[in-house]
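Sanity check

After download, print the first record. It should look like this:
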Amino acid sequence: MQATLIKEILTTNCSDQTKTVMGWVRSKRESKKFAFLVINDGSCQANLQCIIDGDNESFSKLGGILTGASVKLTGKIVDSPAKGQAYEMQVQELEVFGLSAADYPLQKKGHTLEFLRDISQFRSRTNTFGAVFRVRNAAAMGVHEFFQKKHFNWVHTPIITGSDCEGAGELFQVTTLNLKDDHSKGPDYSKDFFGKPCYLTVSGQLQAEALALSHNRVYTFGPTFRAENSNTSRHLAEFWMVEPEVAFADIHDDMQLAEEFLKYVIGYVVDRHPDELAFFEKHYKEMSVELLQSIVKSDFTRITYTDAVDTLIKSGHKFEFPVEWGADLQSEHEKYLTDVVFKGPVIVYNYPKTIKPFYMRVNDDGKTVAAMDVLVPRIGEIIGGSQREERLDILEARMTEGGLDGHDLEWYKDLRRYGSVPHAGFGLGFERLVQYITGMGNIRDVIAFPRTPGKIQF
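Expected structure tokens:
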């Protein structure tokens, strides 16, 4: 049953060769003398036009074939006289795998993204989502290739965890306790599966630190979860994170790694999927191939948080959210820096310690921590990272300031007791990167089966 992918036919010289393709019917046109079937097999953005002569015995099988049917076609690949396609197939044999009912939801017309979210089982068959998921695949391969070339080990940190990495409290709890029981006095976690409260992870960073302090360079790439009851275009309950961690590294090493990483992955996609990116640029105006190429070629500006705040204040621009030292930068501030001031990617570093988590290294001024955010044009922050606090006494003081129970993090403090070294890392929300590359306006449209508040189809 082995078939040739349409991508292979369109990217190699297959003219005058007999090939077999298998895919789904996008459209059918027929007359008494011949018929046209337009087939897509998901391998690329393009379709393959297949012509069946009226004298061919397979012509009689066309009656029941509607949009969405799955077929196997064998025939001769020839140069196509039609505009916009290099080849077409002159069909010799037709086999139908599965017919499609007349109420197939993906008819040959435009569909809103909102409508397609309600039929996630089919939306990957559309031009838009076929392109999205091929780009997502390429971006994932770019992530792995970048780190593997730099001798990182891919590590698998726990999905079920006993720690809340950032103290956010927006966690999905994992329990085997019977919710129907009376818990008026609070759950008895000693009777739970793990004997203590456990959650779905929001980050693999803390465990990655442990592995970096034995393997030097590691990265995680897997699912994370946040129980944030937010129905916006920027939030998912289940999403994927890329989190590298490097031993013997400081904040400047971290910024350099983040810049190289982002440029590599974007360049990887640009080189491999020009057709998909051209499609996004035509149909989704937030996407620009020229912008992506400029990021790959640019040198990222680096500026301290203090200088960034001064720049924003001195600009005289009226922002919705006031700019002041000690407050986190808002999206409008970040985009002003990238789009107006520096006209390119910017890395802001050395943030006030009062707005950052306990594990970030306190700078010598005692006011700031060695944290950094990578900002890109159009959206602002896309990567956040820091040098980690490697000094036990200062780490404990920061935990106390934050009201954290150090008992559950004794293992984390042990990393500072026994052979501590400077180390750093960052996190990138993978869906945010795919969203940036494709220009899709809603993050739910760059993951196959989005999980959001009140919505879980499968």
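If your output differs, re-run the checksum step. Summary of this record's structure: The longest helix spans residues 127-149.
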